[in-house]
Amino acid sequence: MLWYTGKRLLQMIPVFFGATFLIYFMVFSLPGDPIAALFGDRQPAPGVIEQLRVQYHLDQPFIVQYFIYIGGFFHGDLGTTYSGRAVSDVMAAAFPITARLALLALFFESVAGILVGLVAGLRKGKLFDASALVVSLLLISVPTFVIGFILQYVFAVKLGWARTTVSSEAPLSELILPAIVLASVSFAYIVRLTRASVSENLGADFVRTATAKGLSRRRVVTVHVLRNSLVPVVTFLGVDLGSLMVGAIVTEGIFNINGVGGTVYKAIKLGEGPTVVSFIAVMVVIFVLANLLVDLLYAALDPRIRYAK
Amino acid sequence: MSQTVIEPVSTAVRDENSPLLEIRDLEVGFQTQHGVVPAVRGVNLTLYPGQTLAIVGESGSGKTTTAQAIINLLANTGTVTAGQILFEGRDLTTLKPKEMQDVRGRLIGYVPQDPMSNLNPVWNIGFQVEEAIRANGGAMSRKAAKLRTIEVLKEAGLSDAEDRLKQFPHQFSGGMRQRVLIGIGLSARPKLLIADEPTSALDVTVQRQILDHLATLTRDYGTSVLFITHDLGLAAERAEQLVVMYKGKVVESGPSQEILANPQHPYTQRLVAAAPSLASRRIQSAKHSVAVDTDVSAAGANDQVLVNRAIEREQAAPAKDLISVQGISKMYRIRTKGFKYNELLAVNDVSFGIKKGTTTALVGESGSGKSTVAKLILQLESITSGQIEFDGQDVAGLKGADLLKFRRRVQPVFQDPYGSLDPQYNVGNTIAEPLLAHKVGTAKERQARVRELLDQVSLPWASRHRYPSELSGGQRQRIAIARALALKPDVLVLDEAVSALDVLVQGQVLNLLTELQTELDLTYLFITHDLAVVRLVADNVCVMQQGRIVEAATTDEVFDNPRQSYTQELLAAIPGGNFEFGR
Fold this sequence. Notes:
Oligomer: heterodimer
Largest sheet of chain B: 6 strands, mixed
Number of helices of chain A: 12
Number of domains of chain B: 2
Radius of gyration of chain B: 26 Å
Shape of chain B: globular
Distance between the termini of chain B: 47 Å
CATH topology of the domain at 90-273 in chain A: MetI-like fold
Strand content of chain A: under 5%
Structural class of chain B: alpha/beta
Largest sheet of chain A: none
Strand content of chain B: 15-25%
Distance between the termini of chain A: 9 Å
Shape of chain A: globular
Helix content of chain A: over 70%
CATH topology of the largest domain in chain B: Rossmann fold
Largest interface: A-B, 26 and 36 residues
CATH class of the domain at 90-273 in chain A: Mainly Alpha
């Protein structure tokens, strides 16, 4: 297992370089001149533009820019935004907020999703199951921003249980409503995954044997059905953690949260190579680590999966 | 009220001679989209303490449903619609879920059919046994429960139980898993054990060991056994009482010996006639009697024809071998840890020859290498050393067009009639596929050939539009045979081609194969673990053990005069081999 973990961590090196290189290349190939765009309609002195170009290495060929950036990265220098702020400061402000939001959403969707999915699977064909299926279908088909605006209107504007917008510190209590919005679609998928998995495992031979042993229904369900049903759900959660970090853009927009999504969106519009690449690099690392965690969880859930090779 | 109708069951009169289990007019139905489909239609049976009773029938006869109804293990859609199940005088069909939970495991143990799927793959063996002990033994300290777990597993025949508690089901062999399941079933010393085909997924020799062990345990504990099986020979050997079920009804019941010696119901008669282990006995005796009863016959009644054919074949057989296998070996390298390998010699210096128009059987337990030999001959795997000649030509290095030509002449039929047909292909396309792959004929000619083939395997022309899921196991295997015959091959390699089929269907398919052999002058390599089947179809037998051929001779020699102790063991393990059967 240790050997496997080490090997997987080593695999992150090529993934890191590949991802950053590709992103840098894509930002570089974006049309338009980022420096000229900074000044809008006003024409600055020609010398100023030249000076800025040299400062941001924009006069160098693409490959040189990339290595200057990577060199800085390993010295802890992530470069500066075109407005002069250190990229590392921007990240330190944005990431904790989005991480809190994403983890809270992950918590909601897994706890509620597995619970609802389990009950629906156990009562397949009954009223609860049918309603769970309808609700999950609704959540999947209605766009996130519609759900977001509805919940914002009902809970913040009408009932006043939550704030319409989140303050700049974004404490956990204020993030509950945005997290529910962010979790809604994944919650629906988890309900459906868990339901299918539970109802399949209920028909398994070993469940019948467990019943024949004289075990209580509760024990049969929790010990023999639930654990076996979690493997596909865990896969989904691992992939989902990554998309929650990125997909928070819409939710962050609705509740005016200064997180990763908004920052990256702005940086892409401005063509700020170093900012975009730094954020993406961190996300790639998070994605890879989350998937590693999923694979390790697999082995814990299902002993048949061994990672010796 | 109905009380006047039902016989009063008083607890006072219950003694040694009152039944432990009495099923009265039991009816079970399954809820489907088209209403309730009855699976069990009025079953009656009585089991006394200490007795062993076997329910025999083919799949779909309702035998398993009857057994599961006793402790209400029916799937959600199944319900008891009428009748009573009296256990020590108490009607189990009226119990509340909580009361039934008390009966399960503690009073009535259950050993399921398939050891591969009946242990939860994510919990270790110790946990799963201990769970059963705790559920039925009341409050118990962890240490006491663990000691009892080891005791139960040891009784069930796992001598190294202490070391294996932490292991998971996938680390156990099929036989070992079945021992664990038997241990679980008997852990609370129930009064009744329901054993639902407990060994049908296992090799004959393992089956014998496990059933012997089960018999010893239940005798020692005084446990009654309700034994469910499709194998008449096995039932006769293991149970005093037989109940024969057919389409949800009991068609015959009584003492085993009596039923086998003198079956009354036509279905039982067919079963007795078709059981290959019994028919095999009659291959010689059939020489004296004349078989006329072709209507109810499966394999058995046509023995005279088979014997004649065999004699003809022997006389007509040319001196030269069509397939000649000389000293072949196959080494597999199994990766263990990191870059280390273990070498496994699956086939070790095997030599034999098959003459044109004859059948050679390769027999052995699973893991003996018999299927690997088939793959090597079919050129699906490359040989490590040795030589395989087909029609005087070395086939080892065949490539491209030559290999295709070889494949046209040597075709396989595999064991699983469910897995070897593409569910998305209808029957006509399935049979025509080899013709298409080898670019034989025009569309019209191919269709004519499909018609001819369907006719040869006795399937109607209309069945070409049907899909595998709509067909029975026997029909599927006929299609697999038709597909193999499409290219007019010289050789069929039949890898356990009839092992997954019910006895009656098995008999029909074997009959078809022998007919086709004479008609088309085919050569068969027949791979099976079932010696009883071998007796019916094979001219020569090679017995394999651990990758080697330990005995090779004509079928008669092997059966009448087995020289190797291993062959004798295999023969002795055929269930029902020691019984005399009437017709």
